[in-house]
Amino acid sequence: MNIDDIKREFPIFDDKIQNNDLVYLDSANSSQKPRVVVDRIYDFYTKEFSNVGRSVHYLAVAATNLYEQTRVSVQKYINAKDKDEIVFTKGATEAINLVANTFGQKYLSEGDEVLLTELEHHSNYVPWHFLRKAKNIKIEFAEINDNGEVTLEAIEKKITNKTKIISVSHLSNVTGAILPIKEIVQLAHSKNIPVLIDGCQGAPHLKLDMQDIDCDFYAISGHKMYGPTGIGILYAKKKWLDDLPPYQGGGGMINEVKKEGITYGELPNKYEAGTMATAQVIAFNESIKFMEKIGIQNIEKHEKKLLDYGLEKLRKNNSVNIIGNPKEKGGVISFTIEGVHPHDIATILDEDGVAIRAGHHCCQILHDKLNLPATARASFGVYNTKDDIDKLDEAINKCKKIFNL
Amino acid sequence: MDLKDLYQEIILDHGKNPRNLGKFDNYNKDAKGNNPLCGDNVHVYLRLNENKKVEDIAFEGHGCAISMASASIMTDMVRGKEEKEVKEIVTDFLGMIKEKDSLETNILKDDEKTKLMSLSGVKQYPMRVKCATLSWHTLTSALDNSDQIVKTEE
Description:
The complex is a heterodimer of chains A (405) and B (154). Chain A is α/β, with parallel strands linked by helices and 405 residues long. Chain A has two domains: 3-27 and 295-402, Aspartate Aminotransferase, domain 1; 38-292, Type I PLP-dependent aspartate aminotransferase-like (Major domain) (Aspartate Aminotransferase, domain 2). Chain A has helices at 3-8, 35-48, 58-77, 92-107, 126-135, 152-158, 181-190, 210-213, 238-243, 278-294, 296-316, 342-350, 364-370, 386-402; strands at residues 23-24, 86-89, 113-117, 138-142, 163-169, 195-198, 217-221, 232-236, 254-257, 262-264, 320-322, 332-337, 354-355, 357-359, 375-379. In chain A, the strands form four sheets. A seven-stranded mixed β-sheet of chain A has the order 2-8-7-6-5-3-4, sandwiched between helices. A four-stranded antiparallel β-sheet of chain A has the order 11-12-15-14, covered by helices on one side. A two-stranded parallel ribbon of chain A has the order 1-13. In chain A, helix 2 runs antiparallel to helix 10 (278-294). Chain B has 154 residues and is of the alpha+beta class. In chain B, strand 1 (29-35) and strand 2 form a beta hairpin. The interface between A and B is medium-sized, with 20 and 21 residues.
């Protein structure tokens, strides 16, 4: 694959940003959007718009079909068994909240334990914390090791006969560690514990096969997969979606509504109350097609090459300290510079068009453990090149110069 | 935008070697400030004497060069001032960071004003304004919690 050609498909790189060529190294936060996705939103609104699933006129039927086509595309992309196992949400955050809320309602009571890890994003901690407050459940954290990874053994150590669900990241947005999720699922299932995978960083970068991983739930963020904001996916095994109560109530998710009571709709409508992000769902189909066209294996290979190059380059740069050294690692490099706060790094890099993120990356538990209030993070997407990493390195040197290092 | 406006020599100096960093024993007012977006935090301690004069002031915390320099310069500037004067300086500083071109208070000497104006570079960086203002808001909150139990004996 030719990266220059791929990069040209992203309109954001057409123009200078603040007089600089954009070096976008913040894809773990959100990816840029290819033209096909942006155009699809425009076309839908200008030529095809209607709400879905309700009216019988031509536009409504056509829009419903488009909306459902995305469901099938996602199902195939992640190799789910059934299209009804794909629930659209407003994002991965809502997907996790949906599980925590409904599973918590039905299966968690005082003293029960939910097992997370120390590297979870806040979106895979706060929803469980709500249950800790409401139901007095306990939250346990599997520990990270010195490499910034969570091993199967670390998970096993924290499983007790009170553990009711395990919820872990596929790929850490800070250390880049790829967790052994298949093994975690096997271990958990041997003890009859269901597993939720926070796949925000996994889905954009790794090949997914739900039937092979065998997890119970998998949360996906659309905007990190070259898709629009406002769309996420909850994959859940059908048995769970049939079994768990609905999440939000409203139009579209009901079967029959009477003064005396209500029955709920069939899957997948049961979990999609109200008017959904229709245009975004339809445009997300283009993101899937875009990634399929390149091939996820090719994306993986490209990002691995960038990662190796980036690690080599930054390791040579004195006073740069790279956070974590996991054996299995995705395209994320978090770092600090001795004597320069990450926010100052980010501001100085931005002056040269190098967009990175600084802060705790919504992982305060992890940063507390690392004893760092904040880190700087460069993360890769399919459009990044070695040249971007060279520019990152140069900008870091400029940073050191300003701070007289 | 120019990075030199933001990272002036005086900012880098105070950022690297913050004055009044730490905590002293007989403080009678304090407050904590957090910047939840970036995880920066500051804890301001001060001692007001019976004449409502800032006898001593210090801060603990961590943050970027801007926030550390701002807290450092601030603590230097308000030591020895009366509470009323401190509040006027805070209002003047926050007004300058927000919209005004210069400092207007007569309490500060010209060289002190020049020192404070070195922080005006953040006006070009809206995301960094809160770095410069965190310690000042925290100082206000410390002064306003006058009903707090005096902690000098702890």
